[in-house]
Fold this sequence. Notes:
Layout: E1 5-9, H1 16-29, E2 37-41, H2 47-54, E3 59-63, H3 80-85, E4 90-93, H4 96-101, H5 106-118, E5 122-127, H6 131-135, H7 139-154, E6 163-166, H8 180-195, H9 199-204, E7 206-210, H10 218-222, E8 229-232, H11 239-255
Parallel strand pairs: 1-2, 1-8, 2-3, 3-4, 4-5, 5-6, 6-7, 7-8
Helix pairs in contact: 1-2, 5-7, 7-8
The protein binds phosphoenolpyruvate (PEP).
Amino acid sequence: MRRPVVAGNWKMHGSRSANHTLLMELEQRVETEWPIDVVVFPPFVYLAEASRILDGGQIWVGAQDVCAEAGGAFTGQVSAAMLKDVGCRYVIVGHSERRRLYHEDDAQVARKFAAALRAGLIPVLCVGETLEEHEAHRAEAVVARQVDAVIAMNGISGFAHAIIAYEPVWAIGTGRTASPQQAQAVHAYLRGRIALQDANIAGQLRILYGGSVKGGNAAELFQMPDVDGGLVGGASLSADEFQQICAAASLRGSARH
Ligand code: PEP
């Protein structure tokens, strides 16, 4: 059965002392027996320290982005091998803020996905439609295009070692969540699209929902059959909220055992 994932994207927030406090609290609050994978994604400069603090515990560390290149003259960039070297297990690729603010296109995201796989990291591929696309009923067409670009470059087998996060752009940081039914419809569509090429990979693939997930709405989202957890932004900075979200995911995990 698919093991739920709760992933906390800290974005550009934190400081050494605030991170320490938050991570120590999370270590205490995330129960070891919960059948879920929990990951935090601090900014690059804090990754090594977060890995040290969490070493040996049940919370994993991931990065918010990665360079598509393996190394060399790329000032300011960080390679997948470097992320692995400082203890990362996961990396987000194609977050909507990277696509929108830094003009990353589908091909570049696919190259980042490939770089992550080559280094032995688990890519968390973000897909999702803008408000305009949502209102034009184009959600499925948009996520299909975004996923197909990754398949074209990496083959379907890349998804045997990856996670997808469906993050409707209109729901990120807005307080406006997709309804459980809306999320389920797109998740089922994504799984079906992967299944056209490999039913086994599709059946195992974890598809997370992201977009204003909070302690109060996580349970109803995670009850949907194709919603395997959440990619959480704002609420991942509060130990209370994040704990509630993890607890909701653990109910799903337990129900499926
Ligand atoms: C995100 O940053 O990916 C996200 C989903 O943010 P929020 O939970 O704040 O909407």
